[in-house]
Amino acid sequence: MKKYISIGVNELDTYLDYAILIIIAIYSLHSTPSEMGILGACFAIPFLVASGLFGKLFDNGNILKWRMLLFFINGIVMLFYL
């Protein structure tokens, strides 16, 4: 049970970091939507790739498909907000 709570907390922390990064990009750097998309992809892709490794180590690789689903949902939702 502790393992799954830890995974959930890490996911929330990742998305909180991404939200802070987007706020900085909008207000400080005056980023365009395409620049924000590239910034988001650069931020999220290492986590997507690393989840396969951690999934194999901790949960026999089952976490990767859910991580990919959340990654694509996040990408689709961001299109509507940009």
From TrEMBL:
Reading the lineage from the top rank, the first entry is Bacteria
**Keywords assigned:** Membrane, Transmembrane, Transmembrane helix
Residue spans crossing the bilayer: 12-30, 36-54, 66-81
InterPro entries reported for this sequence = MFS_trans_sf
- Family annotation (SUPFAM superfamilies): MFS general substrate transporter
Q: Work out whether the entry's keyword set contains Transmembrane helix.
A: yes
For this entry, the protein name equals MFS transporter
Question: What organism is listed for this UniProt entry?
Answer: Photorhabdus stackebrandtii
